[in-house]
Amino acid sequence: MKVLIFGDIYGKVGRFWLAKEIVSLKEKYNPDFIIANWENMTHWSGPNKNHLAFLKDLWVDIVTWWNHTLSRKMDILEELDGESPYALRPDNYYETDEFKLPWKWHAVYEKDWKKILVINLLSGVFLRVDVYNPFIRLEEILKQYNRDELDAIVVDFHRETTSEINAMALMQDWIASVVFWTHTHIQTNDDKILPKWTAMISDVWMVGAENSVIWADLEGLRQGFMTWWWLKKIEPREATEYVVNWLFVEIEDKKATKVEKIRINWKLN
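Predicted structure:
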């Protein structure tokens, strides 16, 4: 099985470069599944209904969300709250029998007789959100499935701290096929296969404007960094340098056999 995973698609710029590169990447890597994060597709917070259709038109199979999960919930609620989930929200938000959150949180996707379990988790450390312990929740989820019936298990963990990265990677070695992390938006150089065959990378990065502050123009942020008074409107950077980041993983019998990070840089004249 071949899986392509790409990082946060930021706004109009990210959508443009995703559409530009995805055809050639699909031809080169011939993936069975494509996984993408889309929570910032619609002007840093989203996505909206049009961008849902945009990703489906590009043959993206599965999309994940993080701490902006419910930002535009009413626009796409009917589109996503069905039995066959296209988008996965973090699994470890709190719920009760009376108060249920919309959308699925983990699911098995099947295509061409291949089955992949995708799990989306969120850390509560430094993210200003209170969530159920992601380490405990992951163990609870995995107990619900017969691993012999799956071809791969992929975990997307959105977090701030590096201690959580290494702990979860080692805890899931030989259980998950791929564990990747997101949120810091800097592609890391630690892509590897662990001793018992789980592939990992600490951050995939993003699709958007390079030499930006995550995606934004510095001028809208300078006052905030200098004084902690965030009074100016934050705008996407109108850049001439762009970056597309992906992670490619090959998996055999749930075991990662190859992991390769992809970085494509574009500079407009």
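Summary: The chain has one domain: 2-267.
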